[in-house]
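Saturday, quiet lab. Running sequence design on the structure tokens for the scaffold JK sent over.
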């Protein structure tokens, strides 16, 4: 107990002695404290002492530690703790700091919780949102995902943050589990990290990598390892059109003439032709790929224009005329607009894909091909497909088909068997005397995504696309496409859907197409044509052909300049007789599209009945995906909803 040296009546005579009081401040750790190890160090500042001073720390369990002074700061090292935190609030160490001078002791109490528990945390991806749980691969449709997980510790006030990249956010842990943390993925690899930190400073984390592959991304392809059974990879380093010089060698692409001996003198060395720059043309590489069992890869590096000049149609070995593909092959350019394969001087189409064979074209342009003149042995045969004819499996990714022509069907592309997928393409300025100014399909399933078909024309039906089946239900899928300024002399200025075809259309923009009947769509068969979130912006009042035997069917959220497509305003949120207010066709972020004006009624008017595509035509996430009223994800996608059409006006903010 401290006693005053001044009697009450003498306080005025010794004010300094009355004000001098021993105090303990700046105690560390602060009260309360949470630590993860024992023993600990306790420090405090002691002031106002009189005479000799001593400081000690008592842990309440029979152990006290003397503190050492450094000026006014006293430090007690290795103070043992007795209790470990186990969710029992009574198991707390009460430490008493006692400072004593000549006038007696002063005490201060702090409470310290010992938490040596090692926390854990684990991230999981719900199976219902993971199409490939093992590989963590999310394609378009999963631009945003939910992740969940578990966390263990004895500290109810611990914090958990989860996020991708530099944008983590707090997560509530309930009984060791956390659910539905919504994470937006960017294109490519996304690293998602959960970090758990308790009050004692214990930290646990878990990291997973999820790859989001967008529609327009360049597909991966394996590199050869040297094994003779591996796929072959040929690098084209010449832009002319010489054929392969070694037809019996499946491994070496070489267009130089073969060496020849000079017989006049046996002592002379063999004659070698002058060296030439490069040794592999595109034609020679195709011949090698045909010779070697596929799949094989042909790479076109850098900006280049390959002009095919080796004329001679109706030959099937790629030695002359078009490039015949008879073995599974991928031809990969460096960029759609800088790698050009030109067939203007060929007198033939550019590619001819054999039955059952897969051709994959990636990031390049094919232009100026034309169907060949009839074979002299069969003067009545007129062929289809000005750029490409395919009876196999055709995949076009980031490819432009430009200014090709056909004396029959398929100004750019004629599909005669197999199947075809066109992704992120531009098909423009092609002409067909028959059907399908850009693409004709005869009983071949066709998918077109994130592509623009423009300025194509047909002498028959389908200014852009004509498709018909003859032996069962056939699928046509169009999503996130722009069909603009196409025309036909018959029906279907942009699209003609023939017999036995089920067409599914979502987030399309039709604009400025023309035909005698159905400037946007004609349906001439027994299949079903359904569309949603689509703009019919053709100037004609009959976007949909009124003479079609089977009417097209709205699935909701469509907008038409006229009133011919059987839109339903009351039940399906459709908008007939409405101007979409489109900007002219222009290159928006590298893609020819019609941008919406700010005042367009199509803005935020899609997705209330059927979900919009989560990415727009440019592969940019729509700002309010998925936006379906009544959808279980509504809480994460409340109105306003996505835009009608192929292009979102205001997209999500970049992460």
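Result came back. Writing it out in full:
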């Amino acid at each position: 107990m401290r006693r005053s040296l001044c009697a009450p009546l003498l306080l005025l005579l010794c004010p300094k002695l009355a004000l001098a009081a021993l105090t303990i401040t700046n105690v560390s750790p602060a009260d309360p404290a949470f630590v993860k190890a024992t023993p600990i160090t306790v420090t405090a500042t002691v002031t106002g002492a009189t005479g000799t001073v001593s400081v000690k720390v008592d842990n309440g369990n029979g152990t006290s530690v003397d503190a050492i002074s450094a000026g006014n700061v006293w430090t007690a090292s290795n103070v043992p703790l007795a209790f470990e935190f186990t969710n029992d609030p009574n198991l707390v160490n009460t430490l008493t700091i006692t400072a004593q001078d000549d006038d007696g002791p002063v005490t201060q109490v702090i409470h310290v919780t010992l938490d040596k528990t090692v926390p854990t945390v684990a991230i999981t991806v719900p199976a219902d949102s993971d199409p490939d749980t093992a590989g963590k691969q999310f394609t378009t449709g999963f631009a945003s995902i939910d992740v969940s997980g578990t966390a263990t510790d004895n500290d109810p006030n611990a914090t958990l943050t989860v996020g991708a990249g530099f944008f983590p956010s707090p997560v509530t842990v309930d009984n060791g589990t956390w659910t539905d943390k919504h994470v937006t993925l960017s294109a490519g690899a996304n690293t998602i990290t959960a970090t758990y930190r308790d009050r004692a400073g214990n930290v646990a984390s878990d990291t997973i990598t999820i790859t989001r592959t967008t529609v327009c991304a360049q597909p991966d392809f394996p590199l050869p390892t040297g094994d003779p059974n591996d796929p072959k990879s040929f690098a084209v380093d010449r832009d002319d059109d010489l054929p392969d010089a070694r037809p019996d060698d499946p491994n070496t692409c070489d267009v130089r003439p073969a060496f020849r001996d000079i017989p006049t003198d046996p002592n002379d060395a063999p004659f070698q032709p002058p060296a030439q720059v490069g040794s592999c043309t595109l034609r020679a590489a195709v011949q090698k790929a045909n010779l070697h069992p596929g799949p094989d890869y042909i790479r076109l590096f850098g900006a280049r224009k390959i002009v095919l000049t080796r004329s001679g149609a109706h030959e099937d070995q790629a030695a002359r005329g078009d490039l015949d593909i008879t073995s599974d092959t991928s031809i990969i350019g460096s960029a759609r607009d800088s790698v050009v394969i030109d067939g203007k001087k060929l007198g033939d189409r550019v590619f001819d894909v054999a039955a059952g064979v897969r051709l994959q074209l990636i990031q390049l342009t094919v232009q100026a091909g034309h169907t060949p003149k009839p074979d002299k042995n069969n003067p009545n045969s007129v062929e289809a497909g000005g750029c490409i004819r395919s009876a196999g499996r055709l995949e076009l990714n980031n490819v432009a088909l430009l200014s090709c022509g056909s004396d029959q069907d398929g100004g750019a592309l004629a599909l005669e068997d197999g199947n075809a997928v066109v992704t992120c393409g531009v098909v423009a300025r092609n002409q067909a005397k028959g059907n399908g100014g850009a693409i004709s399909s005869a009983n071949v399933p066709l998918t077109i995504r994130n592509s623009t078909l423009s300025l194509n024309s047909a002498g028959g039906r389908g200014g852009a696309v004509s498709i018909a089946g003859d032996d069962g239900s056939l699928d046509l899928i169009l999503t996130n496409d722009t069909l603009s300024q196409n025309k036909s002399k018959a029906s279907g200025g942009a699209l003609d859907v023939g017999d036995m075809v089920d067409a599914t259309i979502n987030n399309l923009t039709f604009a400025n197409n023309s035909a005698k009947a159905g400037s946007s769509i004609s349906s001439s068969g027994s299949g079903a044509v359904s569309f949603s979130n689509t703009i019919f912006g053709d100037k004609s009042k009959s976007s949909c052909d009124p003479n079609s035997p089977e009417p097209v069917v709205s699935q909701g959220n469509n907008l038409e300049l006229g009133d011919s497509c059987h839109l339903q305003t009351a039940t399906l949120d459709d908008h007939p007789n409405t101007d979409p207010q489109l900007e002219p066709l222009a290159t928006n972020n590298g893609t020819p599209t019609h941008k919406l004006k700010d005042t367009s009624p199509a803005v935020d008017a899609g997705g209330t009945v059927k979900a919009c595509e989560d990415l727009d035509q440019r592969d940019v996430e729509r700002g309010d995906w998925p936006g379906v009223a009544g959808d279980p994800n509504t809480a994460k996608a409340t109105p306003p909803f996505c835009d009608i059409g192929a292009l979102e006006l205001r997209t999500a903010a970049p992460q």
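Notes for JK: Residues 22 and 49 are 5 Å apart (CA to CA). The first strand starts at residue 23 and ends at 28. Ask whether to fix the surface positions before the next round.
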